[in-house]
Amino acid sequence: MSFPPPFYRWRPHPWHGLEVGPQPPEVVHAYIEITPIDSVKYELDKVTGYLRVDRPQRTSSLPPTLYGIVPRTYCGNRVGSLMVGAEKGDQDPLDICVVSERPINHSEVILNARVVGGLPMNDHGEADDKIIAVLDNDQVWHDAEDIGDLPEVLVERLRHYFTTYKLKPGEQSSVSIDDVYGREVAHKVILASMADYEEEFGS
């Protein structure tokens, strides 16, 4: 039996088998790992492509937005060089947070995300940027073009979540987040992660 393109006979790996997006770096695909109702940290298993339970969250904090990865990206030396104080990238796919007016309560979904900015998160000396985007065809956020078009409180919630989501009582945080950046810098980070991916895995 023959299958018409672009039909996948087998499920493609979310990191390696999906496209970066319809118009990178402006509009990218986001593969969602965690939703705003999840109190458990899920993470893409790099070998199988399934979601793996990483850990139950220690605190009561919930992710303020959808959270996942951009396919075919890799945070290597190019991404690391863009962040002051980082020694290298974290060697993971590029993370992305997606704002949506309507609740999306299912993970393992793919959506088109329009990039508006990002958080420069440094974790143990590794660049672990969090790209911030809006759902591309969202009726409320369709006019958002840059990070300044989002409510400041939403950006602060994202900053607080990522500053504290690994924090353990009695220990100092190893995470630092500098000033949020806008769309132009976010595009540079995405392009760098695409180039890092090609160097690491091939086109």
What does this 3D model show about the protein?
By secondary structure, the protein is of the alpha+beta class. The chain has a single domain, classed as Inorganic Pyrophosphatase (Alpha-Beta Complex), CATH 3.90.80.10. 18% of the residues lie in helices and 28% in strands. The protein has 3 helices and 12 strands. The strands form 3 sheets. The chain has a 5-stranded mixed β-barrel with strand order 1-4-6-10-7. Strands 5-9-8-11 form a 4-stranded mixed β-sheet. It has a two-stranded antiparallel ribbon with strand order 2-3. It is globular, with a radius of gyration of 16 Å. It starts with 26 loop residues before the first strand and ends with a helix.
How would you briefly describe this protein structure?
It contains three helices and twelve strands. It has 203 residues and is an alpha+beta fold.
